[in-house]
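Per your request, structure below.
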């Protein structure tokens, strides 16, 4: 009885078909080098597993603050940014007030709102997956107290119009700019902007730059805002192994991560050029570590690629995403194999 409202609930789904080449979850395809894993093992061996972790993650926060060029007081850590999205959906404004976000976008904004029972103001992006003035203005009229904008957006890959995002912030709506993919973009971040603002925060994640398995998301905002949000999270949400591994990777392994990001950006640009040479597919521009393509028959191509051992994300079921597939940037040899297979299949 108590759970009846969730009987038909659609939880967040991910592609899990085992395939030789996995280009479906926008992960960094490169693992950490052995020397760094050895360093992690050394430190993990010293952990007193019977003890609770530091509830403030103070050492990790110092390192992350340095990584982003902010202060520890500006930061709230989460068990992935998914946890922070859920938390913000619970605590910002009144749950009777709706949440706004453009579609198509990252499904966790909708999933989180549905769990809490918050109304959703969804408005469509245009045919180039950009925000429109009318869309934003219509949404604002419905008096939401919370807005989510993923920029670069998932699954479309493009950066959203920052002037229109600022217009929402200027209306007093608490605005979350989810910059999960900004490490792959040369466009301007909202990071400096939110430090001076009381109703906007930025989300970042370690998941796209090599630590998806660790679950470490970061909220960055004005220190007064961050300090209140920090009071509302679970006390031990960042595990002791995560605190230790995160610290090592972002200090001793920082050059490794930066080099992997550099390679992935250059591979993304290579893939955009090569995909654009293929007749019969539409390629959308990308500032992220994935590329959205539209093909003749998305479901069929998705299946055929799996038969060839390549998993990409089928987006065909989403609004405005007919026959669209989202392809994460893999290792150079994986990208070339994908290109060759795609050319054969289309
Ligand atoms: C826009 C966006 N935000 C957040 C996330 C989730 O990140 P995390 O792994 O930190 O929970 C994703 C993951 O795909 C994403 O695409």
């Amino acid at each position: 009885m108590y759970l009846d409202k969730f009987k038909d609930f659609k939880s967040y789904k991910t592609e899990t078909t085992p395939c030789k080449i996995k280009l479906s979850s926008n992960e960094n395809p490169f693992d950490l080098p052995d020397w760094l894993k050895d360093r992690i093992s050394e430190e993990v061996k010293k952990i007193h597993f019977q003890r609770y972790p530091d509830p403030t993650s103070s050492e990790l926060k110092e390192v992350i603050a340095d990584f982003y060029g902010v202060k520890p007081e500006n930061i709230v850590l989460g068990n992935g940014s998914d946890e922070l999205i859920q938390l913000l959906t619970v605590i910002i404004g009144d749950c009777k007030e709706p949440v706004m976000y453009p579609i198509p976008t990252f499904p966790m904004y909708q999933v989180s709102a549905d769990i809490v029972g918050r109304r959703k103001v969804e408005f469509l992006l245009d045919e180039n997956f950009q925000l429109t003035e009318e869309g934003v203005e219509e949404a604002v009229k419905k008096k939401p107290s919370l807005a989510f904008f993923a920029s670069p957006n998932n699954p479309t890959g493009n950066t959203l119009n920052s002037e229109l995002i600022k217009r929402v912030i200027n209306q007093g709506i608490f605005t979350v700019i989810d910059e999960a993919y900004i490490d792959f973009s040369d466009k301007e971040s909202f990071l400096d902007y939110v430090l001076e603002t009381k109703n906007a925060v930025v989300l970042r994640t370690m998941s796209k730059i090599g630590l998806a398995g660790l679950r470490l998301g970061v909220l960055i905002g004005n220190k007064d805002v961050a300090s209140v949000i920090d009071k509302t999270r679970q006390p031990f949400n960042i595990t002791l192994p995560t605190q230790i591994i995160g610290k090592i990777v972002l200090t001793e392994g920082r050059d490794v991560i930066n080099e992997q990001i550099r390679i992935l950006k250059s591979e993304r640009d290579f893939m955009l050029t090569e995909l654009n040479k293929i007749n019969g597919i539409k390629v959308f521009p990308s500032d992220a570590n994935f590329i959205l393509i539209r093909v003749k028959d998305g479901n069929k191509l998705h299946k055929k690629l799996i038969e060839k051992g390549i998993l990409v994300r089928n987006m065909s079921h989403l609004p405005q995403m007919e026959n669209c597939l989202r392809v994460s940037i893999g290792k150079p040899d994986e990208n070339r194999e994908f290109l060759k297979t795609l050319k054969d299949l289309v």
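The two ends are 50 Å apart (CA to CA).

Regards,
D.
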